[in-house]
Amino acid sequence: MSEVGTSEQAIIEAARSRAVIFDRTETRGILEVSGSDRVRWLDGMISGDVEAIVAAAAEGRPETGCYATLLTNRGAIVADLHVGCVGEVLILESLRSALPNIAATLDRFIIADDVELKDQSDAFLTLSLEGPLARSILEAALEEGSSPPVSEAWQAAKIAGQEVLIGGFGLSGELAYQIRMSPDARESIIAALNTAAESQDSAGALVRGSDAAAETLRVEAGIPLLGRELDDDVLPPEARLERAIAVNKGCYVGQEIVARLRARGQVNHLLVGLTLPADAAIELGAELEADGRKTGEITSLALSPTAGSIALGYVRREHSEAGTVVEFAGGQATVTALPFVQGSAAEAETAEPA
Length: 354
Description:
- It is built from nine helices and 17 strands.
- It is of the alpha+beta class.
- Strands 8-9-10-7-1-11 form a six-stranded mixed β-sheet. A six-stranded antiparallel β-sheet has the order 13-14-15-12-17-16. A five-stranded antiparallel β-sheet has the order 3-4-5-2-6.
- Strand 8 (154-159) and strand 9 (162-167) form a beta hairpin.
- The chain starts with 7 loop residues before the first helix and ends with a helix.
- The model is unreliable at 1-5 (pLDDT under 50).
């Protein structure tokens, strides 16, 4: 990967204008679900429509994955998941450090089912290609006859003669693809992606991302993260995760609460963006107040090259309108509509086949 533009600001600018490679091997992982009962069983565990993506894969349609949540029986979030169907296996992608808890939670529901769970995170390296040029670069790198997956879909493919598994999602708000590969394929795949980037853009080889830049991009995009904005005190509508809930499927754990919330039409707290003073001295978890009482807390902080000092957090519904001023110890913050920065992913999704 290119060493050019390794400052955080340069990485962010490249991700918003071209494309960047992030190494997600240590932060993201995969749990495989196999066995003859896997489809029926997993469909009853999570909020995504597993049967629909399996049917799409069987029929050769592109929608072979979905975004979903694993919930408690009271409807709170255990984890968010990028779900895929690849051959005879279902895959659950999530925060790598959360996989043991995800597996343990799911394992409790395997009673007389022919289902096996296997953490495959150590078997692969994961590179994430993110930016408005990500699709054209990946198209140029894939072997003839393959094309990048649609949003949230998964597919097996080859790059530089090496087998890869590609997921159509990211954490920057830009067009993004997760590329999972065997460790010995890393250098040849990076070389192929760089060659493809050079053929698509006169700026040359891809910029290498960093964890700090990836976090700023995520906050700019308003994407909630497990362990920050998402945990078992949060309900999906509070985190604005309606897209993770399939409304036309059978029962699953937590569905009754989710359906009740949908019928009621509102929740008491909402995830919001917050614009902070440039010199704000504030820490994660800081309490927010409005009308003389606590309204919420800060969950993520970032210094954006374009949006300035920004944060994600939760506030009470009555304080969630853009422009509302809330207070923290030592200063004030302004509720801001999400995302702070509109990436290329939203526009691309509207152009995908229904």
